[in-house]
Design goal:
CATH topology of the largest domain: Alpha/beta knot
Distance between the termini: 83 Å
Mean pLDDT: 90
Shape: elongated
Radius of gyration: 22 Å
Strand order of the largest sheet: 7-6-5-10-8-11-9
Structural class: alpha/beta
CATH superfamily of the largest domain: SPOUT methyltransferase, trefoil knot domain
CATH architecture of the largest domain: 3-Layer(aba) Sandwich
Oligomer: single chain
Number of domains: 2
Order of helices and strands: HHEHEHEHEEHEHEHEEEHEH
Largest sheet: 7 strands, parallel
Number of helices: 10
Amino acid sequence: MTKTKATLTRIADSSRRDTVSLFDLLAQREARDRTHFFRIEGLRLFVKAMECGAEIQSAIVSASHSDTPAAQRALRYLQDHRIPTTHVSDECLARITQTEDPQGFAAIVRQRWESLADITPSADLCWVACESVRSPGNLGTIIRTGDSVGAGGVILLGKSTDPYAPLTVRASMGSIFAQRFIRSTFQNFATWKQQAGAHLIGTSPQGAYDYREVLYQRPTVLFMGSERKGLWPIHQSLCDELVRIPMAGSADSLNLAVAAGIMLFEIFRQNHPAPADLLRSG
C-alpha cells in the first residue's frame, strides 16, 4: 500500500468512527441538545425524511442492506445529494441501533425548531400544546395522530420529553418530519394565545362540557396536561373551554395519547363532514 493510500485509509477510518460515535451519542438528550441533531433508524424513516426534505447530515448503511426499490431509491438519494455515507458491517449497525430490523439504514438528521412567532394557527386544522408530557411513546403517538388529521404541530411546555428522542421518533412512524415543534414557557404561551386569538381547548374529568358539545373552529389549540396530573388550575384558567371525555366503565382516566386522539378526531370530524353518500338514513 502506498503512503498516500494508507493516509486516505486512515482518514476514512477516522471519519467512519466519528460518524458511528456521534450516532451512538445521540441516544442521549444531552448530546441531542448540544449538537441539534437526532438519529433515525430504519429504511421507512429514512424514506420519510427524504420525502419531507429533512436535512440529513450523514447516513450509515450496512453491507447487506435491503435490496428493495425503496432501498435503491434511498441509495440514489444519498448519491445525488452528496450526503456523507458510512458503510458498516451488519453487526456494527445492529449494535448501535435499537430497531429490531433497520433494513440496513440509519442516519443523523438536523432537528427543526420554531418559535411561537412563526405560527399562524388559523392556517392549520389545529395545534396541540402539551404540558410536561413525560412518556416518549405518548408524545410520538400524539405527533403521529396530529399528522393524520392535519394538525400543524406540537407546542411543548414545562419539562416535556424530547420529541427527537429515539423512542419518540419511532412511535411517530415518520410523522416527526411532517409536524412542527415549538418549546415555550407557559407565560410566553399565554401571551401568544391572547395575541393570536387562539381558541384554547383543555381536557379535564371536571370539564363543563362533553367534548362532543363544543364547536371547534380555527384557530384551535388543544391543550393536554401531563400523564399523572393533567392540567393544573393555572392551565385550566387559560382555556376558553374545558371539556371532558365521558366514560362508562370503572376506569377513572384515559391514556394521554388516547385522549388526545379522541379530541383530535372530533376536531377533524367537525371540520370534514362525511360525504352525503356515506350517510345512512334511519
